[in-house]
Amino acid sequence: MAEVAAAQTVAQHGQPPIVSKRDFLKLLTGSGAIIGTGALVWPFIDYMNPSKDVLALSSVEVDLTPIPAGQGITVSWRGKPVFVRHRTPEEVKKSQDTRVSDLLDPAPDSARVKPGHAPWVVVIGICTHLGCIPLGNKPTDPRGDYGGWFCPCHGSQYDTAGRVRRGPAPANLELPTYAFESDTKVKIG
Ligand code: FES
Known about the structure:
This protein has helices at residues 2-12, 21-30, 32-48, 52-57, 89-97; strands spanning 60-63, 72-77, 80-86, 120-124, 147-150, 157-159, 164-166, 178-182, 185-188. By secondary structure, the chain is of the alpha+beta class. The strands form three sheets. Strands 1-9-8 form a three-stranded antiparallel β-sheet, with no helix packed on it. Strands 2-3-4 form a three-stranded antiparallel β-sheet, with no helix packed on it. The radius of gyration is 26 Å and the shape is globular. The two termini are 47 Å apart. FE2/S2 (inorganic) cluster (FES) is lined by residues 127, 129-132, 151, 153-156, 168-169.
């Protein structure tokens, strides 16, 4: 126990404790109390290490084939809703033709999609005003005047590229990290 106390005292004064392998073995074998403490600490340490389940959720693969043009889905990624929208050719053109200078948070359509995949928009579905989840993915949802998403909390509207078109939201919907693994599969995260 003296070794433990000494190590703790040194650690409290900002210096890393120096414990040789022999000291460590002495600590392990010298006291049942220490082993008991280890048993209590382990679940806590284990808890702090992400489980395989959590690691798996750090990325999500989305099959795009069931999503028809004009519709979108919501997937959960790291506890957040992510909208995956399949835009029609008309929606893509309208978004591309929008004057960037007219936007509240200026960004061209090309900055909101991956090259070669203009129909697909992937955004984090959290309103940039106060964090509500906007509507617009279900066929019966209101989509606002710009055809994207409508936030029912205070009326913010987003276009099909997830760009804010009417406040009070101050910014476009955030883009998650994602990549196309093929033309029909996206990996988020
Ligand atoms: S939280 Fe969306 S408009 Fe306020």
